Amino acid sequence: MSSATAPPPLFGPPPRSRLLDVALLLAFIGLAVLLTWPSALVHIDVAVRDTIEADRPGWALALAKVFKFLGLPTIQALAITYVGIWCASMRRSLRPLLPVGAAWLLLAITKQLQPLFDRVFPHWPDCPPVCPEVDTGATGATFFAGQGYDAFPSGHSTATAIWLPLAVWLIPQLPRRWRWFLAITPSVLLTMGQTYLGYHWLSDSIGGILLGVLVLRLIQRVPWGTIPLFPVTLLEKWAAGRRAAIDRRAGSASRSPIWTVSLRRMAARRRSIE
């Protein structure tokens, strides 16, 4: 007699240590503090930009644009939302959609940090190489430039650090090597691409990754699989009842002999003629 196999888990395991959460928060705060005046970090940002601009061949620019395309937040959000819908359909539960909705909400909240820091971009894409009346040297690359810019933290980096690892977390059956590859590689490539193109300072991307990983871990700590959500429970019961009714009808139809089905069709046709 074979024992019943347990259903696959809805999500991956939650983060184990809270020390990493604290370290991420402190690192983000420390990075932000160092960008409030022309510190060594700001000088590094400027040096990286100037070094890259000294020699930028066409093939490297084309490759950097491909890397930056990986971090388009709208495409990522729609793709991972579809992954959540697929997981909900396969597991017959609406709960995989809950962390996806939380990611949408928290990303909208983190977006409000950018105008508060008011940091200029290395090069605004619409007026290369340098925007008029904006000093992008070490003095002008700090926070509170008074121009209403929103370079820090990079929204693309924040979204990439949340969406793709979240998709991996929604599919815990993926092999371990693929989980690490999909969770880390896009953020690395995006950082290279947007830094090379001058769309963000290097520290903007680092700050976005720190913030994104912190938000991701907060989402993963919520017990979405067991949290008592009354409306979701009602919807799940309704969906399960509908599925059971469909399965019963399909099973009863498959058990009926062929000649019985034929007789029923003939009787229905005769009634329609009469």
UniProtKB/TrEMBL annotation:
Lineage, highest ranks first: Bacteria, Bacillati, Actinomycetota, Actinomycetes, Glycomycetales
InterPro entries: PAP2/HPO (IPR000326), PAP2/HPO_sf (IPR036938)
SUPFAM superfamilies in the record: Acid phosphatase/Vanadium-dependent haloperoxidase
Limits of the Phosphatidic acid phosphatase type 2/haloperoxidase domain: 95-220
Signal peptide: none
Coiled coil: none
Organism expressing this protein natively: Stackebrandtia endophytica
Superkingdom assignment: Bacteria
Record's keyword terms, sorted: Membrane, Transmembrane, Transmembrane helix
Name under which the protein is recorded: PAP2 superfamily protein
Regions that span the bilayer: 19-39, 59-85
